[in-house]
Amino acid sequence: MSVKGIRRGFTLLELVVVLTILGAIGGTIGMLLLRQQRFYRGASELLYAREGVRDALELLATDIRGIATADTVRLLADSAIEIFSNIGSSVVCHGVAENQVGLPPALSSGNTLTSFVTQPDTGDLALFYHASIANGSHWERHRIAGFGPRSPASTCPSPSAFASADLAADVHAFQLTLEAPLTSEVALGAPIRFIRRGRYSLYHASDGDWYLGYRRCNALGASTCGSIQPLSGPYRPYSGDRSATGLLFDYFDAHGARLGWSSSPLEIARVDISARAESRQHLTVEGRAYTPADSATLSIAIRNRWQ
To answer: pTM, whole model, 2 decimals?
Structure first.
């Protein structure tokens, strides 16, 4: 009696068929993953470009919208603007001396009389508001000679209307020293604005890309600015073509007429900013070269145009 052998394993033909099917499935999955990778890469690069445009407009809009008078603009150019931007505010709490003023602290109750985006220093200006029958209402401008924290008892003593016993132990007030004495028209309680001169511009960095940069400039006199600091980017390169340049400033008067670069800053009623950003990466989509890019334009009205 014979017993047939039991067949085990696969034939060569079956292995070839299985491997072929697995290869086709693996190739299909690989192509899908590659396309997904390209899609997400393109989407991320597009978002990167959009963020660059949004950052430029938000940064510039905040300072330009905060311009209190048009004479705080010091430079008009197609790819740069130089302005005095607000960095803080307070009130006159106490006259320490002819050229020294005490400022109140932030009260623990939340009534903030003194607030700073960044603390003023000797390179900034202080503007004191006052109104008189003879001269009308205006801001009295002074260069800051010194600024520092002091105890509330010395800068805002109890006889002052702005003093408060509701202060935390670690709260400090401020003493402001000016290069010239205040006039007699500045009274206790007068609002104070602190402004800093700076220049925003499109510049070519050492890495070959173009960025929005900021330079701090001297408070008064001819413009002298420090080293540039990148804020956002990259953007398209500077170009004389208004429709292609990475960052464009347009200036308009109250009638909507475009102003030239040599126009008086007192004529400015509106500033239009156009930002055009593009990705560092060049992608291929369906066989075609593609560089993710985005652009936007924002119009900003100058607030309180006259002194």
So the answer is: 0.73
